[in-house]
Fold:
Amino acid sequence: MTRSIALSFTLCTLLSPLCQADQIIREVPDTTAGQGFGALTGMMVGAAGGPIGALVGAVGGFFAGSAVQAGIGKAETAYEVKNAQDEISTVRSPNASFEVGQQVTRKGARVVASEE
Structure:
């Protein structure tokens, strides 16, 4: 009896991640690099106007950097991922590509393809 309880517990523990795999909902463009570069550049240029100028420059550079990166076609890839609780989050994936509907597993801030 004790062995069957231990076996059942072990199987439930090992198989639960397969039942709770996340799923790719859609692919979205990611312009985080442009936003960071634009905010930093805008802050340095705006610093000539003092602290308020630096703040305004950083905000303007944030949006301008994103638009420039998207405009020149250098946007990276991010994915919207839905988990078992139907929560949707955006995950960057610069090195791996996934298909819409593909089952994935989270490993920290990244996602990897689930083994089916």
About this structure: The two ends are 31 Å apart (CA to CA).
